[in-house]
Amino acid sequence: MPPTSKTDFAEAVTKVPEVTLIFWIIKIAATTLGETGGDSVTMTLNWGYLTGTAIFLVVLVVLVAVQIATKKFHPFLYWATIVASTTFGTTMADFADRSLGIGYTGGSAFLLGLLLATLALWYWSLGSISVETVNTPKVEAFYWAAITFSQTLGTALGDWMADTTGLGYEGGALVFAAGLAAIAAIYCWTNVSRVLLFWAAFILTRPLGATLADFLDKPLDHGGLALSRPIASAVIGAFIITCILILPQRAGRLAHTSYG
After folding, report:
1. How far is CA 258 from CA 1, 3, 13, 46, in A?
2. Which end of the chain, N or C, is less packed with Cβ atoms under 10 Å?
């Protein structure tokens, strides 16, 4: 039975956007901004990884609290929270990999463990890790924890692929782009779990954005284009705002909802 009132309709949608091509375009741009923005604070301003991580953690906590408190999906608030999570993920991963000295491989393994533990606890607690269930504070808390760990993991994976494997930023970006293309093919031509594919794609878009950002702002002798991080951040931020303004987005449908 379709919703019969505004209240029913509000209960029938999630507080996150519908997952469409537009979602993935903005997501990749947001992850790229997270890398350039995080590096602008920690490297260009030279505030360091610990200070940068603390600043972005406060911003992230505030935005997540506002996101949970609001009653419906707000595109600007949602994407601001995503950018905060990916920027925090950048500085946190760099702090773990470099300041703590555990390296890219160790950092990636540690963060993968945290993400899998979060998803497992979410599933054990609520029986689903689908974004189509994100409409209550408890689910949102799990959602944003998983989002943040996936963003942090993606940063570590991007650095690991570019540096440890020796592929460089261009090679790393091509590998992650190929991985996303494979996920898209699996989505189109198989019946593999859409929930599994979503989280796989969400994780892979982060290192893709990270390697693209590194390619833009790293020195020429490190395989980058040596562009200004603040300027790159401003351009990418303007692109995201433009996308939100001109490309239609709506809240995703809430799964397994009944309307009496």
Report:
1. 8, 9, 12, 53
2. C
Integer Cα distance of 15 and 17 in angstroms: 7
Assigned token pair, 148: 């943040």
Q: Classify residue 220 as exposed, middle or buried by CB count within 10 Å of its CB (0-12, 13-18, 19+).
A: exposed
Q: Is the dihedral of CA 82, 85, 90, 93 positive or negative?
A: negative
First-to-last alpha carbon distance for the chain, in angstroms, is: 8
CA distance 238 to 240: 5
The pairing of strands 251-253 and 13-17 is antiparallel
- For residue 217, pLDDT over 90 is answered with no
Would you call 97 helix, strand, or coil by DSSP?
A: helix
| Structural domain spans, the chain | 12-251
Kind and range of the H or E run holding 34: helix 21-39
Task: Assign 15 to helix, strand or coil.
Answer: strand
pTM of the model: 0.86
Structure tokens at 155: 């940063």
Kindly tell me if the per-residue pLDDT of 36 is higher than 50.
yes
Q: DSSP letters along 55-66, please? A: HHHHHHHHHHHH
CA distance 119 to 121: 5
Residue 141 and residue 122: Cα distance in Å, rounded? Answer: 9
CA–CA separation, 25 and 7 (whole Å): 31
Note the pLDDT tens digit of each residue in 2-18. Answer: 444 444 444 568 899 99
